[in-house]
UniProtKB/TrEMBL annotation, chains A, B, C, D:
The lineage of its organism: Bacteria, Bacillati, Actinomycetota, Actinomycetes, Kitasatosporales. CDD domains: NTP-PPase_RS21-C6_like. It comes from the Bacteria. Pfam families: MazG-like (PF12643). GO terms for biological process: nucleoside triphosphate catabolic process. Keywords: Hydrolase. The keyword Glycoprotein does not apply. This is Nucleotide pyrophosphohydrolase. One of its GO terms (molecular function) is nucleoside triphosphate diphosphatase activity. InterPro entries: dCTP_Pyrophosphatase, DCTPP.
Amino acid sequence: MTNNHDVAGLQRRLAEFAAARDWQPYHTPKNLVAALSVEAAELLEIFQWLTPEQAERVMDDPESAHRVADEVADVLAYLLQFCEVLGVDPLEALAAKIDRNEVRFPVRRRGDSDGDRHSSE
Amino acid sequence: MTNNHDVAGLQRRLAEFAAARDWQPYHTPKNLVAALSVEAAELLEIFQWLTPEQAERVMDDPESAHRVADEVADVLAYLLQFCEVLGVDPLEALAAKIDRNEVRFPVRRRGDSDGDRHSSE
Amino acid sequence: MTNNHDVAGLQRRLAEFAAARDWQPYHTPKNLVAALSVEAAELLEIFQWLTPEQAERVMDDPESAHRVADEVADVLAYLLQFCEVLGVDPLEALAAKIDRNEVRFPVRRRGDSDGDRHSSE
Amino acid sequence: MTNNHDVAGLQRRLAEFAAARDWQPYHTPKNLVAALSVEAAELLEIFQWLTPEQAERVMDDPESAHRVADEVADVLAYLLQFCEVLGVDPLEALAAKIDRNEVRFPVRRRGDSDGDRHSSE
């Protein structure tokens, strides 16, 4: 993994990219979180009319695969820029969340008959 | 940075977490992308009634700061799980997108008078 | 249909409701459109882990049915308030859009073999 | 207001439009709610880089005004189709929600010093 491909390296490239184009005034927390949710919706748009089975095979078509990767990049770009301007470490935040969820959703032993509902994590 | 805090390590923890709770049947690409966009909207919700100035200071309040980090974690969790089930490398996708954008949005030299519109990246 | 149940009557009630609580300063176009998209995501959240078959039966459970109607109300409330502050007539906008789409997506005669892809309207 | 411009008339036109193009198989509740949230995000996209002041003036530019009306139409179209397939009356749902909110958020008398926070309705 090259230096540019870790999260900190990508955040640096994104910050330099925005600075070179004088885009920082637009990159307020409120604007970036709006852009993040717009890009997540654009990723969803690719799947909105697909059956679950078609959705599983979306990467088989090169054009769709490119579109998926492109929207994933946009979502990640805005997430990283949002985190940068607010000083949030996204990897640390996720590691801490998984720790909390391991307590909140204990693994049931086999044979337990209690509820089986999938919870929003 | 510990092993658990890099992207691959977090993807592994998320996959083990879901497997231990038999949640994989729910984690289809179409469901995960819907969940991703829902979580991005929940992050936006924190900011929806704030002025731009209030939004800049959202991390000053410990409760809001925790809520932001928590929703960032959810967005990243679903993004990584979506990428995992479809075999997309999110860091590679973003690095490739920045490469393309450097061509698509060349840096203007000072004194250029051409358009000044911020583009969606 | 009572007077309160037509779109103009509901817009009037929403405007009076916000005015009585001094909420108008929050009800800027940018805030209202963010709130609209958040509420649409909350409606989606109800469906995110359901199979297509479970989703078809969501109104069979009184609690889910209430939740769906409640989120539909929120989406419509923010859409109508957004339209009110910007002076957009949503029914007129939709009628005009259907007119345009009837030209843009002509009905194929039976036997035509051209593309069968569902388009985003 | 002509017959085509009330909500029931628009729902009828949308249903006929979809039926004539054999689009009903795509118009499941889960797909329609995804499409609704995607369209709400596309409306948000128009505003994402605007300052609050620019957002207030978005209808002054004919091209932006058309784009806003067009996305409003899409949001309403999917909301009405979603309601149609699930048998939800959106106007009734909103009227009932306003009734509930009038109880939940009582109007404070002038001089009350209690909290002033805007609540999500």
